[in-house]
Design a protein that fits this description.
It contains eight helices and twelve strands. By secondary structure, the chain is an alpha+beta fold. The chain has one domain: Sulfite Oxidase, Chain A, domain 2. Strands 3, 4, 7, 8, 9, 11 and 12 form a seven-stranded mixed β-sheet that branches. Strands 2-1-10-5-6 form a five-stranded mixed β-sheet. The protein is globular. The structure holds ligand MTE. Ligand MTE binds next to loops.
Length: about 325
């Protein structure tokens, strides 16, 4: 099977080439054995990563990715496997009314209209880096509700060790689901302490605007120290469980995608280096900025490394 990372990252920069790459990604991902499309091994010079954040990690001072790039270069397989597909197809997603089911090991459970579910105050301007396992990253200003604030309301019991999330799955609204590219519905999960961490956000919008459909409207997770695929979009179910929940990518390729998926430059994906990345921070026709080193926990080690104390992060990738 041919993978898209046969194109060298140095080839990507001109617009004509990255557009071609988008086509190839689409073609590659439409094949039966699906994989996220990685950049090839970094043999090019890698600059130091000079990421600077506020002490709580809530705001990075890194250059933000442009709104038009954040909303046009997406992974949302329910709308197709090409990077341009979600922006093209996600208009068919109906986001109002939106019901969220809360179930499992909690004293309070039930089905909630989004407005009722979100009664907490929205926080503005969480400016986070989000790094995809494919080797690109973005810097996005989100607004939303810290997940911990929401989860506490449901009074999880002492048996609640994990939180599982499920995306909407509706073949009529989501044309990409016809391809059976990954096990639907898209599902993800966090350990309870990860879910309760102050950096973990349920985002309802970006750049001060309501969440665009292609970015996971009306509500999606953002976990900035983990690879992008943990940040599940268009959530319809939250389930507290005693056991580790199944996750879509782990179900598909367990040797490539672990449950934790913390950004870790020291542990490569079996087919791609994770040591460096390219920011989507270009200007004009240049989509990718120069290659920079990837930081442990995506630069959020000060805030989150203690969650994994004593764990072998090669084993628990
Ligand atoms: N959530 C759902 N439901 N379906 C998806 O295909 N893709 C994931 C994640 N959440 C995905 C998803 C991947 S691989 C990434 S990198 C991020 O969404 C991308 O988020 P963004 O489009 O806002 O950058």
């Amino acid at each position: 099977m041919a993978y898209v990372n046969e194109i060298k990252p140095s080839d990507i920069t001109p617009e004509s080439v990255y557009r071609r790459r988008r086509e190839l990604i689409g073609a590659g991902l439409a094949s039966p054995l699906l994989a996220l499309a990685g950049c090839s091994e970094a043999k090019v010079p890698v600059a130091v990563n000079t990421a600077k954040d506020s002490p709580d990690g809530f705001k990075t001072l890194d250059e933000k990715t442009r709104f038009e790039d954040v909303t046009s270069y997406n992974n949302f397989y329910e709308f197709g496997t090409g990077k341009a597909d979600p922006a093209k197809n996600a208009h068919s997603l109906i986001t109002d009314p939106w019901i969220i089911q809360v179930s499992g090991e909690a004293e309070v459970t039930g089905a909630y209209h989004l407005e009722k579910f979100l009664k907490d105050q929205t926080v503005q301007d969480r400016i986070y880096r989000l790094r995809c396992v494919e080797g690109w990253s973005m810097v996005i200003p989100w607004q939303g509700v810290p997940l911990a604030n929401l989860l506490k309301r449901f009074k999880p019991t002492s048996k609640a060790k994990y939180v599982a999330f499920t995306s909407k799955a509706d073949y009529r609204q989501m044309p990409g689901m016809a391809y059976n590219s990954i096990p639907w519905p898209y599902r993800e999960g966090l350990r309870m302490d990860e879910a309760m961490h102050p950096l973990t956000l349920l985002a309802t919008g970006l750049y001060g605007k309501p969440m665009p459909n292609q970015n996971g409207a009306p509500i999606r997770l953002v976990v900035p120290w983990k690879y992008g695929f943990k940040s599940i979009k268009s959530i319809v179910r939250i389930h507290f469980s005693e056991t580790q929940p199944q996750t879509s990518w782990n179900m598909l390729q367990p040797d490539e995608y672990g449950f934790y998926s913390n950004v870790n430059p020291a542990v490569d994906h079996p087919r791609w280096s994770q040591a460096s990345e390219r920011r989507i921070a270009g200007t004009g026709s240049k989509l990718f900025a120069d290659r920079i080193a990837t930081l442990p926990f995506n630069g959020y080690a000060t805030q989150v490394a203690s969650l994994y104390k004593g764990m072998d992060l090669r084993k628990w990738f």
